[in-house]
Amino acid sequence: MSQRPYVIDEMISAKAIAARIEALAKDITRVFEGTDKLVVVGLLRGSFVFIADLVREIDLPVEVDFLEASSYGNAMESSREVRILKDLRGEIAGRDVLVVEDIVDTGFTLHHVVNLLKSREPRRLEVCALLDKPARREVPIKATWTGFEIPDEFVVGYGIDFAQRNRNLPFIGKVRFTAPE
Ligand SMILES: O=P(O)(O)OC[C@H]1O[C@H](OP(=O)(O)OP(=O)(O)O)[C@H](O)[C@@H]1O
Ligand code: HPA
Ligand SMILES: [Mg+2]
Fold first, then answer.
1. Using CA atoms, how far apart are residues 21 and 40, in angstroms rounded to an integer?
2. Which residue's CA is the nearest one to ligand 1's atom 17?
């Protein structure tokens, strides 16, 4: 099936993202001050750009690890089935963990991952999500830190894809179809 044509309208500029990340990282640094155990866990693939910028603004010793979870495939609707495609490399038992996610939409992904990681008994586990789309929530979960609350639009850019494309855009944009289905 060929892709229905669309354009991308900018929603959040690269400059606004950078300013918000600076503020988030200041607060994260304050909250985790004194820990020598912070493990920053990025959820692949969507968070790879966000985590790269965020960790460089966190003024603490950090370890970086990744977990790959997938539920959308090429669709615009969650399959509601979260598959873990790659697990963490390190142990998190007894450690302070910051999960970094690009977007919380239905909440299925974050809910599944947080339950999985909590079962490993970290000392503390918090979540920083760049975007939150509360209108679409099906599972009640909220990140400790949220960059931006957004309306019910399908977004791309800054790591976030539509059918694996547009992850390399430096801003967050919304998908607008230009032809009927
Ligand atoms: O709250 P939810 O409805 O679960 O949606 C959010 C998740 O969906 C996307 O991941 P996706 O499954 O597309 O994988 P990707 O990160 O590799 O793009 C996104 O990166 C989040 O992880
Ligand atoms: O708005 C979105 N865009 C891309 N991927 C997503 N996964 C959940 N929500 C979204
Ligand atoms: Mg995706």
1. 15
2. 45
Quick check: is 4 in a domain?
no
Catalytic member of 27, 36, 102, 105: 105
What are the residue ranges of helices labelled H in 75-120?
A: 108-118
In a domain, 167, yes or no: no
* Predicted confidence (pLDDT) per residue in 77-124, tens digit: 999 999 999 999 999 999 999 999 999 999 999 999 999 999 999 999
Q: Which atom of ligand 1 is nearest to the CA of 102?
A: 20
Pocket of ligand 2 (CB under 6 A): 72, 103, 105, 154-156, 160, 162
The tally of domains found in the chain comes to 1
Does 178 map to a domain? Answer: no
> Which of 166, 138, 127, 105 is CA-nearest to residue 41?
127
Domain region containing 63? 13-155
Residue 143 carries which side chain, given as an amino acid letter? Answer: A
Instruction: Indicate if ligand 1 lies below 6 Å from the C-beta of 143.
Output: no
**Please, which contacts does 85-91 make with residues 24 or more away whose CB atoms are closer than 8 Å?**
85/44, 86/44, 88/41, 89/65, 90/39, 90/63, 90/65, 91/120
Q: How many CA atoms lie within 13 A of 80 on its CB side?
A: 4
